[in-house]
Amino acid sequence: MKSIHHIAIICSDYEMSKDFYVRVLGLEIIQEVYREVRNSYKLDLALNGQYIIELFSFPNPPARPSRPEAAGLRHLAFVVEDIEAEVQRLVNYGLIVETIRVDEYTVKRFTFTSDPDGLPIELYES
After folding, report:
1. Is 47 left (phi over 0), alpha (psi -120 to 50) or beta?
2. Which of 4, 31, 85, 98 could be stapled to 44 by a disulfide with Cβ–Cβ 3.0 to 4.6 Å?
3. E strand or H helix at 76, and its extent?
4. pLDDT tens, 26-51?
């Protein structure tokens, strides 16, 4: 294996999740496709020109536990340069952001917020 190609996320409200990942987090749209046979959208997103996320909509997807300690995907982590500025930016969008903590092993600062479906999003200061 050479690298991760992408992360696929199924959302419950496509327009709300699209707005979150594009406008709030600042990911770039590579391609958006409506698949009529599946009644589903597929949105390819990039960060700094690198393809990283496929955002899918499906009619009535089942709920899945997604808090950090639940089985399955624990969280998505994004590197930020200035964690206080990024936290303030997200708070300005109305997001709830946890208190900034320090990783006891790396001594790097990090915090969490959530996407519209409750998927934990970590901000990790470089």
Report:
1. beta
2. 31
3. strand 76-80
4. 999 999 999 999 999 999 999 999 99
CA-wise closest residue to 110 among 122, 92, 97, 94 = 122
- Distance in angstroms (rounded) separating the CA atoms of residues 52 and 36: 24
Cα gap 33→45, rounded to integer Å: 12
Domains and CATH numbers, the chain: 1-62 (3.10.180.10), 63-126 (3.10.180.10)
Alpha carbons 117 and 126: distance in angstroms, whole number: 26
pLDDT bin (cut points 50, 70, 90) of residue 55 is: very high
Question: What's the mean pLDDT in 80-108?
Answer: 97
